[in-house]
């Protein structure tokens, strides 16, 4: 019956039917090839990224020279994005505000978690917190971006890690709103940031025609990092991304909202068309409505028998391999923070994971890079800003 129907069709219709069948078969073949390629890539990735891993740092050759190149590029970015009256950070240039906070070490903290600034259960640290967007240039808050939180504990006893900070007794934790980074190491960071500084964003992840150099997985991490804006900076989870010493262990940090330990609060809907609505949301809660914000400060300890590498910040340490453990509670009390003088002080304030003590020494390639780049860029900014 069907074959008789086909014979009755004009020649042009039969051609279109044949082309339709050919296109359908081709699409099915491409889908099968795609699924097979995905399965092979997943299997290869799983095979390459399996434990155990080293619990010690492993510094690759040439890292120092690459670091100097990154510093030059970072300074170039600062020059590119300078405003008429001031030089901005090379990242996280736009602050939503710097606020005062208290960090309470859990009174019943387990003995194994009593390390460094968490060694005294029940102790309350005074702290400053800077909340920010991730971009190197101030832009509308509604634009997809990473969001940052930097915490500075004050009056921390012990010997500071940096020789030129011996009078600054502090412990900084620097975090942003995604659990892993879009580069693995210093070599990739050098290539990525140079491409972006040259305005060639595509080349940041596709540096050439050779598919072996393409960083497709890292591109997807970058796209996931650039997320829509939250309702407020107080409603975001922040991650250290890179690892630190935690006593004799290695760990990453996380800060997550803890509304159960603060008064119930419903933030009035903000006008997200305004360029600085995240600052407005923070101001609404802390200054207008006088409602505190609460967070949990948590650590995730490395299990070297799992794939939890130190030197590759593109790898997320999975919670099923090592759960986050709460070590402290953070309270941001009601306060008036949005004044010209406080905003200027906030802009001049430096945060650096190397501002701290040995018990929380930053480790891994990206942290070694930060040590040099943060210091160089901070010095460059402050010299030109006259402070």
Q: Which tags fit this structure?
A:
globular; 2 domains; alpha+beta; 387 residues; 9 strands; 33% helix; single chain; 9-stranded antiparallel beta sheet; Catalase HpII,  Chain A, domain 1; 8 helices
Q: How does this structure look, described?
A:
The structure is a single chain. By secondary structure, the protein is of the alpha+beta class. The protein has 2 domains: 48 residues; 325 residues, Catalase core domain (Catalase HpII,  Chain A, domain 1), CATH 2.40.180.10. It contains 8 helices and 9 strands. Strands 1, 2, 3, 4, 5, 6, 7, 8 and 9 form a 9-stranded antiparallel β-sheet that branches. A hairpin with a 2-residue loop joins strand 6 and strand 7. Helix 3 packs parallel to helix 4. The chain is globular. It starts with a helix and ends with a helix. The model has no long low-confidence stretch (mean pLDDT 87).
Number of DSSP E strands: 9
Average pLDDT, rounded to a whole number, is 87
Q: State the shape.
A: globular
Order of SSEs:
HHHEEEEHHEEEHEEHH
Helical percentage: 25-40%
How does CATH name the architecture of the largest domain? Answer: Beta Barrel
Task: Tell me the CATH superfamily of the largest domain.
Answer: Catalase core domain
According to CATH, the fold-level topology of the largest domain is Catalase HpII,  Chain A, domain 1
Main beta sheet strand tally, sense and closure: 9 strands, antiparallel
* End-to-end gap: 89 Å
In the predicted model, the low-confidence regions spanning at least 5 consecutive residues are none
The number of helices is 8
Instruction: Kindly name the structural category.
Output: alpha+beta
């Amino acid at each position: 019956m069907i074959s008789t129907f086909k014979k009755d069709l004009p020649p042009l219709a039969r051609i279109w039917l044949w082309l339709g069948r050919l296109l359908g078969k081709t699409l099915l073949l491409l889908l099968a090839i795609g699924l097979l390629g995905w399965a092979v890539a997943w299997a290869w990735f799983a095979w390459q990224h399996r434990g155990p891993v080293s619990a010690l740092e492993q510094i690759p050759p040439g890292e120092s020279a690459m670091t100097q190149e990154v510093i030059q590029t970072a300074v170039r970015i600062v020059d590119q994005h300078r405003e008429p009256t001031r030089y901005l950070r090379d990242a996280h240039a736009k602050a939503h505000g710097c606020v005062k906070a208290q960090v309470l070490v859990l009174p019943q903290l387990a003995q194994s978690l009593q390390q460094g600034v968490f060694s005294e259960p029940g102790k309350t640290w005074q702290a400053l917190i800077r909340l920010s967007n991730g971009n190197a240039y101030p832009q509308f808050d509604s634009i997809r971006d990473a969001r940052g939180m930097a915490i500075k504990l004050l009056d921390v006893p012990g010997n500071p890690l940096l020789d030129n900070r011996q009078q600054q007794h502090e412990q900084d934790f620097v975090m942003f709103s995604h659990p892993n980074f879009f580069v693995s190491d210093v070599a990739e960071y050098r290539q990525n940031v140079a491409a972006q500084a040259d305005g060639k964003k595509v080349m940041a992840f596709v540096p050439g025609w050779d598919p072996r150099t393409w960083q497709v997985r890292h591109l997807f991490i970058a796209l996931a990092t650039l997320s829509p804006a939250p309702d407020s900076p107080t409603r975001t989870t922040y991650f250290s991304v890179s690892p630190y010493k935690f006593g004799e262990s290695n760990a990453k940090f996380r800060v997550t909202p803890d509304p159960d330990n603060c008064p119930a609060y419903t933030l009035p809907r903000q006008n997200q068309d305004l360029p600085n609505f995240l600052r407005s949301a923070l101001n609404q809660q802390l200054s207008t409505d006088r409602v505190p914000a609460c967070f949990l400060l948590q650590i995730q300890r490395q299990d070297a028998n799992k794939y939890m590498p130190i030197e590759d910040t593109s790898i997320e340490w999975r919670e099923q391999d090592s759960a986050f453990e709460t070590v402290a509670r953070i309270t941001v009390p009601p306060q008036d923070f949005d004044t010209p003088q406080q905003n200027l002080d906030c802009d001049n304030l430096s945060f650096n994971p190397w501002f701290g003590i040995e018990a929380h020494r930053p480790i891994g390639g990206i942290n070694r890079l930060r040590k040099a780049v943060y210091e160089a860029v901070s010095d460059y900014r402050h010299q030109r800003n006259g402070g």
